[in-house]
C-alpha cells in the first residue's frame, strides 16, 4: 500500500487573508490536521469552511502522537500539520515528526507561506545578502551566554525571536555581548498595529519604554563589523591583562569576547607570551 503524504502547511501570522489558495485546498482534502492549539486553529478552519477533523499536536505531546500519525500515513492517509501561526518546524513543533516520516519513507511536502522573520528582515533596512536565523535564545543562562559568545563574531545579519516579557533582558544582554549594533525590532507583523523600531542597540537599552510590549517580537541585528588585529597589537593587550594578574584562560576569554575574535588565537599567543616570560 502506498503511504500517504505529510503536508507541512504554514498558517497566517496575523492576517487571515495571508492564507494561500493551495493551503486551503490541501487542508480540505487531507484526512486529518494536526494542530498546535485546536481552539485557535478552529477559528482559521471555520473562516475558510474547512471541515477536516483536528487533532492536537504540540511540543508536550509530539512524541506520543508520532506513532498514531505514522500509522495513519502508512495506511495511505494524507495528513497536514499546522501551527498557531507561521510555518511548522520554524521555532515550532513538527521537526521530530518530519524526521520520523522521512525515516519511514513517507513523502513530506512543505508548502510556502507566512513566516515572521522574512518580512521583518526585508523591512529592517539591514543587509539581506546573507542572514543567520537564530530563533529563540536558550532559556538556560549558561547556554544563552555560550551561544551569544559565538554569535558575536558572525558577520551576517542576525534574526532572533523574543517574547514581550523577556525583551528588555534580551536587548541588554545582547548589547553586553555584541557592543553597539544597528537593530530593527519588529512586532505584530501583518497585523493592524505592525511596528518597526529602528535604531542603535544602546538607544533601546536606555529608552526601552518607547517599545509597545504586545505581540511576538523579531529582532534583526546588524552583523559583526570585525576589526583586524595584528599579533603585535594583541600581544600588547594580552600583556596588559597579565599585569593585572589574570590567567591565560581568563585573558583569552575576556579579550576574545571584547574584540570579537577567535578565543583560540588569543589563547595561543597568551601561552607563548607566558612561556617566554
Give a brief rundown of this model:
The chain has eleven helices and ten strands. It has helices spanning 21-29, 38-47, 62-74, 95-103, 117-124, 141-151, 167-178, 201-206, 231-243, 248-259, 263-276, and strands at residues 5-8, 32-35, 54-56, 79-82, 107-110, 131-136, 157-162, 182-187, 195-200, 217-221. The protein folds into three domains: 5-110, Cobalt-precorrin-4 Transmethylase, domain 1 (3-Layer(aba) Sandwich), CATH 3.40.1010.10; 117-221, 2-Layer Sandwich (Methyltransferase, Cobalt-precorrin-4 Transmethylase, Domain 2); 231-276.
Individual helix count: 11
Which CATH class of the largest domain is shown? Answer: Alpha Beta
Largest sheet: 5 strands, parallel
| CATH homologous superfamily caption of the largest domain | Tetrapyrrole methylase, N-terminal domain
Structural class: alpha/beta
Amino acid at each position: 500500500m502506498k503511504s500517504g503524504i505529510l503536508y507541512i502547511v504554514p498558517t497566517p501570522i496575523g492576517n487571515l487573508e495571508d492564507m494561500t489558495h493551495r493551503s486551503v485546498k490541501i487542508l480540505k482534502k487531507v484526512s486529518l490536521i494536526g494542530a498546535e492549539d485546536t481552539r485557535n486553529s478552529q477559528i482559521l478552519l471555520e473562516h475558510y469552511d474547512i471541515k477536516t477533523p483536528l487533532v492536537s499536536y504540540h511540543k508536550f505531546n509530539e512524541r506520543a502522537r508520532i506513532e498514531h500519525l505514522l500509522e495513519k500515513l502508512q495506511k495511505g492517509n494524507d495528513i497536514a500539520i499546522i501551527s498557531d501561526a507561521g510555518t511548522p518546524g520554524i521555532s515550532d513543533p513538527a521537526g521530530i515528526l518530519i524526521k520520523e516520516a522521512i525515516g519511514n519513507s513517507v513523502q513530506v511536502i512543505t508548502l510556502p507561506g507566512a513566516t515572521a522573520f522574512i518580512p521583518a528582515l526585508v523591512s529592517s533596512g539591514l543587509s539581506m545578502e546573507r542572514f543567520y536565523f537564530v530563533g529563540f535564545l536558550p532559556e538556560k543562562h549558561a547556554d544563552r551566554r555560550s551561544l551569544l559568545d559565538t554569535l558575536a563574531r558572525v558577520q551576517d545579519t542576525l534574526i532572533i525571536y523574543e517574547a514581550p516579557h523577556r525583551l528588555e533582558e534580551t536587548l541588554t544582554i545582547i548589547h553586553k555581548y555584541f557592543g553597539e549594533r544597528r537593530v530593527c525590532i519588529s512586532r505584530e507583523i501583518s497585523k493592524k498595529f505592525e511596528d518597526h523600531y529602528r535604531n542603535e542597540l544602546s538607544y533601546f537599552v536606555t529608552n526601552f519604554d518607547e517599545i509597545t510590549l504586545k505581540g511576538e517580537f523579531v529582532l534583526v541585528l546588524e552583523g559583526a563589523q570585525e576589526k583586524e588585529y595584528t599579533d603585535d597589537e594583541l600581544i600588547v593587550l594580552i600583556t596588559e591583562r597579565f599585569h593585572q594578574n589574570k590567567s591565560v584562560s581568563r585573558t583569552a576569554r575576556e579579550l576574545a569576547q571584547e574584540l570579537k575574535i577567535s578565543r583560540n588565537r588569543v589563547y595561543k599567543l597568551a601561552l607563548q607570551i607566558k612561556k617566554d616570560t
